[in-house]
Structure formats: structure tokens, C-alpha cells
Amino acid sequence: VAGGVITRRSSKENDDGTFDNTETVTTAAAAANATVERYRTLYEEGVTVTNRNQSAAVDAFVDVADGIITRQGSKLNDNGTFDNTQRLTTAIAVTDATVESTGDLYGIRTRKAQRNQAAADASTTGLTDGGTAEAKITAVTNVKTEAGRYDQEKSEDTPSAAGSAELTFTGDKKTVTLIVFWNQTQTSLQALATALGTVANVSVSAHPNKWGLLDGSLTATVEGAGGSDYWSAWETPVDELERLPSGELLRLQGTAVFGYNVSDGASTFYGAKAYRQYSWFRDVGRGWFMYKLITSVTPVVSGS
Predict the structure, then answer these.
(1) CB–CB of 108/101 below 8 Å?
(2) What is the mean pLDDT of residues 27-55?
(3) Are 173 and 226 in contact (CB under 8 A)?
(4) Which residues pair with 27 in a beta bridge?
(5) In sequence order, which ranges of the chain are alpha helices (DSSP H)?
(6) Closest Cα to residue 28, out of 52, 49, 45, 47?
(7) Dist CA 40 CA 173 (whole Å)
(8) What tens digit of pLDDT does each residue of 59-97 get?
């Protein structure tokens, strides 16, 4: 083997004692771009070029520049030449490679991913415009790829429109209005409380949410002539089963109430004849209460 030439010699003895001598000379032919392979996906494209039977090897290396990865190498052939290969992989920038949006009564979240971008996303993170309808919470992730590009992911949380739900309970001696609110600005909540305060006694329980807006409840009470009473927001029959540790099955019947005016509600609850071990009363705050009053307990006979 020399200079890309393979020389093979052989002899075969004949019947008459002579020899047939054979010499085979194989000369490698250099071929540039002997093979060219290409591929493409959504996020990258590549080309591999092989030059066959070259007289010298190329330097093996890997280089990354401008989103392109260059890989180069050589393979020694039997004839002393080299097959030299160069592989180029180019990252393709993709906008909005992923888009997700979810939301509920209180807020909306949007997440977008950008692939193979030339620079990192430098958006301001955290809460901006807090306490306003334009409030936004931004989170950003930048991941550097092997091609030197950036995969960006940005999520934005924004509040849904300000809203409220209103319940009004009227009794003989007062009217109570409960307003549950969310995503209110301080200005809008102050305006609501001021307007109601001209005709009712108003109490407000509010706390800032993650956007700096206000969530909570407002209670407006219009008193009648003297005295007090309680009003039920809802009152529903109770008919349920409970199994004792002994295995006995009981049928519990009574009433469940949610209402306003804790003291009068408690007076009604504790003044009633009931099975206390199966009943309960809870003060849930701001003058509101709940209770379950069990007035009948009967064993359940199997098969009945």
C-alpha cells in the first residue's frame, strides 16, 4: 500500500511445474462530495458531506457559531487514503412553538415558548402595574441550547375582570346584604362602600391578592325598628346515615342552616331539643354562622 495504491501479487502452480503469476493493482480515486445527506425538522436542519479517498486527513473538531454546529472528522481507509466528513447542524428559530392559555373566574395565565432565539428574553419579571386592572405577573425562563441559541419560555398571569356576587336576606327587623367581591381596585371598593354607607351600616373585610387587587366581602345592614333577629341564607333538611364503630347503622334527620346574627342563631340552636353528639354550631365570622341540628335518630334495620 502506497499513495492510495494497493498492490496484490499471487502465484498458482500448474501441473507442468510452472507458475501463473498475477499482480493486481487497485488505485483509489479521490472523490469530492462523494456523499451528501440532508435532513430538516421543525427546529433544525443538517447536511453531511463526505469526501472519499483523500490524500490527507482533516483536523477533527467541533465548532459552534451563529446557531450552527460544525463537526469534522476523518476515517483511514485500507488503501492509506482518508474519507473526510463534515456535518453542519443549523438551529431554526421558531416563534410561538408552544402556546397555552388557561383561566378561571379570577385570572388568566398565558404561557408561550420560543425556540432557538438569537438572544435571551430580557422581559421584566414579577408584578407590574399592581393594584390596577392592567396588573401582570411575568415569569421568564431562558435555556441555552447546544447551538448557542436560547429556548425562551414566558408565562403571564393577569386578573380576570373585577366582579362580585350579592346575596340579600330580609327579616322582620333588618335587611342584610352580603357582597363577595374579587379583583377590585381600592378606588372601586371605596366607591361601593361609600355609596352603600349612605343607606346602611357597612363593614368590609378585604385582603390583597397576588395582583395587588382586593378580594373579600362587604356586609351592608339596614336596621328596622328595635330588637334583633337572625335570617337564614339557606335552610335545608338533613337526612343522612352514620355507621357507629359497633357496626350499627343510624338514620340522622334534622335541619342545616346558614345565616346572619351569631347570637340569635346560637340561641335557636342551643334552645332546641336535639341530639348534641350528632349536631354542631360554627361561628364563621363577620356575624355569620352555620349549624346542623339533628332532632331524630333511628336505627336502620338491615333489609328495610
Answers:
(1) yes
(2) 92
(3) yes
(4) 5
(5) 186-197, 262-271
(6) 52
(7) 78
(8) 999 999 999 999 999 999 988 899 999 999 999 999 999
Other residues' Cβ atoms within 10 Å of the Cβ of residue 291: 22
SS3 232: strand
Parallel/antiparallel/unpaired status of strands 126-128 and 107-117: unpaired
pTM of the model: 0.61
One-letter amino acid of 201: N
SS3 at position 96: strand
pLDDT band at 233; cut points 50, 70, 90: low
Closest to 70 measured CA to CA, from 50, 51, 48: 48
List CB contacts of 210: < 8 A, sequence separation 6 or more. 127, 137, 157
Please state, in angstroms and rounded to a whole number, the distance separating the CA atoms of residues 120 and 21. Answer: 72
For the chain, the residue count is: 304
**Residues in CB range of 181: below 8 A, 6 or more apart:** 162, 163, 164, 165, 189, 192, 206, 214, 215, 216, 217, 218
